[in-house]
Amino acid sequence: MAVRVADRIAEVPPYLFAELDRRRAAVAARGIDVIPLGIGDPDLPTPEPVVAALRAEAGVPSNHRYPDYEGCPAFREAAAAYMARRFGVSLDPGSPPRGQVLALIGAKEGLSHLVWAFCDPGDVVLCPDPAYPVYAVHTRFCGGVPYRLPLRAELGFLPDLDAVPADVARRAKILFLNYPNNPTAAVADLAFFERAVAFCRRHDILLAHDAAYVEIGYDGYLAPSVLQVPGAADVAVEFHSLSKPFNMTGWRIGFACGSPAAVAALAIVKNNTDSGPFTAVQRAAVAALDLPRADLEGRIEVYRRRRDRMTDALRAAGIAVPRPQATIYLWCPVPAGETSAGFAGRLLEEAGVFVTPGTGYGPGGEGFFRISLTCPDARLDEAARRIAAFGRP
Ligand SMILES: *Cc1c(COP(=O)(O)O)cnc(C)c1O
Q1: Residue 389: what pLDDT?
Q2: Does the CB atom of residue 106 touch ligand 1 within 6 A?
Q3: 114 falls in which pLDDT band (50, 70, 90)?
Q4: Measured in angstroms, how far is the CA atom of residue 108 from the centroid of ligand 1?
Q5: How far apart are alpha carbons 86 and 78 in whole angstroms?
Q6: Which of 9, 64, 133, 217 lies at 20 to 30 Å from 350 by C-alpha?
Q7: In this structure, what CATH number is given to the domain that contains residue 263?
Q8: What is the pTM of this model?
Q9: Cβ(38) to ligand 1 under 6 A?
Q10: Residue 194 and residue 90 share a domain
Q11: Is the dihedral of CA 61, 247, 253, 283 positive or negative?
């Protein structure tokens, strides 16, 4: 062998979505029309005012230079204004060490680099299971030990923090939470966040809340920010993403906010790694954050209709899926006697419907598969029809 990769690369499981994409391509190559309900990547366009802002900002020569390390002031101020307007949370948009807002090249970038800022070899990181894979993978990259917090249906897919053993809590540096949740579509109320903040305060743990879906709630549901808990910014940092609410996954823009110490430490990792998001993208993101609420509600209404027709169709096919209050996902139980991987594999191979097996998000996802609502209505209807037919002998 001519080159030898690091153990951390050799040991990491194949990135779930890359692996699934290969399988999907293989089935499609056999001439099967595959309906993609796997990856949560919005199918609708970015709002026109945001695209127009990018067009204009791309033409401004000063935007072509390296971005400000912590993000341009206009973006940080717009993020702080959004947090104040939407959650009543007041944040200092200034620079570290006191500043509380940091521009990110997407939430994924910030979540991964946060682990590098807080986790030394041997440290414990509390990671929900199932979960977005980034938290545990980067913990391993850093030589840390992910400790799995099972998310069980009986507890509303909230972790039981009282069940964390004292020696684990003592060694833990970060608690990751994510509500509204991917992949379970569960929500958390402020009372749960209060308990989580108290837990982190008691054990000197950083609470890292991934709020990627905080703006996708249905039937009037408005998800809270963990920073609404009084004093939370002492121990908590929250990650916001423009990807899902504004159909901007490819733009790579989000922000971290909350604990000044966490923001400053994350900024040190980033200053030594990337140089932040393109300033023209940050300035266009200001236009997104400033859009009237009605604009967002129009997009949520599209997902609500999809959620309703898909849950109705799945229930008619004998799959007892709950109607979620938030996110762009349905977390569906697999039929009795099947495993997640087995069922998702058969659905792809035999029905041409691509879903993600629950175990792709950790062993705690066994018994479930996830459907993403980022597909036009007609395709969702066709997928539901195929799933119903698939269930019959
Ligand atoms: C999509 C997603 C992200 C990634 O957000 P980006 O801003 O696009 O990097 C983060 N966390 C969760 C749970 C997600 O589902």
Answers
A1: 87
A2: yes
A3: very high
A4: 5
A5: 12
A6: 133
A7: 3.40.640.10
A8: 0.96
A9: no
A10: yes
A11: positive
